[in-house]
Fold each of these.
Amino acid sequence: PREKPPFITFVLGGPGSGKGTQCAKIVETFGFTHLSAGDLLRKEISSNSENGAMILNMIKEGKIVPSDMTVKLIQRAIESSENDKFLIDGFPRSEENRQTYERIVGEEPNVVLFFDCPEEEMVKRVLSRNQGRVDDNIDTMRKRLEVFTSLNLPVINYYSEKGKLYKIRAVGTEDEIFEQVHPIFAAFEV
Ligand code: UP5
Ligand code: MG
């Protein structure tokens, strides 16, 4: 058990906005542990867990997997790590996700990043990724964008009102975007 709660950053943004790419850079520079909620769920699918088939169907449809499942995977990953700073990438995706996390984990995030990227750029990036993701096709991408706009934007507004949100203009090269990210963590000295 930890003496004090870890430093938690939620990393939000639409599908293909560059969350994973920028998280890798934050890990390199600031020593965070990167927990992608989507990766944790995809690992559940490939480990043939009892919920794998259901999770796969939800991801194919661009839908949000039941909150308690995702929160438990995140909580387990935090507890099994020695690190005291985490990037939680792609979570919470809805108010219900957010409330379930707060109820189970009992802590608010320290910082929330929002990678703000135009839809047409996100579509272009996702459709040219070519890494075999079952949700990287135009039909599922449309559904992911719809879910993002209707369910994730309210979460982003919630943290904005709380003064925890750092909005980043997620266009340009990876390095140009990281130039906006770097000073945020440099200021926190974590
Ligand atoms: N790329 C990155 N930066 C670029 C730049 N500046 N210029 C040009 N290209 C750039 O980037 C996407 C692609 O763009 C890559 O090819 C990259 O090289 C390039 P990436 O960094 O992967 O973007 P990211 O925002 O991480 O996109 P991702 O597709 O992973 O976002 P999603 O939020 O859609 O995916 P996630 O894995 O988080 O979730 C997938 C599904 O899992 C969800 O739809 C949902 O069904 C389920 N899910 C839940 O149910 N609950 C959860 O809590 C989480 C997920
Ligand atoms: Mg990602």
Amino acid sequence: PPDVEVLGRSTWVFLHTTAAYYPDKPSPTQRANMLNLLHALPVLYPCSHCASHLGEEMQVYPPDVSGRIPLSRWLCERHNEVNERLGKEKFDCAKTDERWKDGPSD
Ligand code: FAD
């Protein structure tokens, strides 16, 4: 089975970076594709318990794909829910651009 930590770290890099560079005013096609990408995760993400937790979260908190800022915040909040569940520190969602767009990355 995949290493859940390595998989998680790389998936978060991809998702947060993609959200950080998502348009402020996405076209209908961009919105639809972002929704498809996010809705695919609970179906395809190769950590089944992670996938089902995310699916439940997404039913309560549907993704906001209306623009870069709301999408980045939505994703940050979903990531924080995982952080909380795993006993990790919560991330300050005011700092997503600093971490994933403007600032240095690791
Ligand atoms: P990660 O949590 O992978 O974070 C990577 C980097 O992202 C951090 O160093 C930090 O700079 C930044 N960051 C942290 N929090 C935020 C935030 N809220 N917003 C923006 N940036 C942030 N693991 C499980 O054991 N059980 C699960 O149920 C589970 N569900 C997951 C669901 C999804 C959709 C994903 C993508 C991963 C899931 N994981 C799960 C993996 C878990 O979230 C971590 O990726 C893994 O434990 C490695 O953690 P890490 O401490 O290296 O940092």
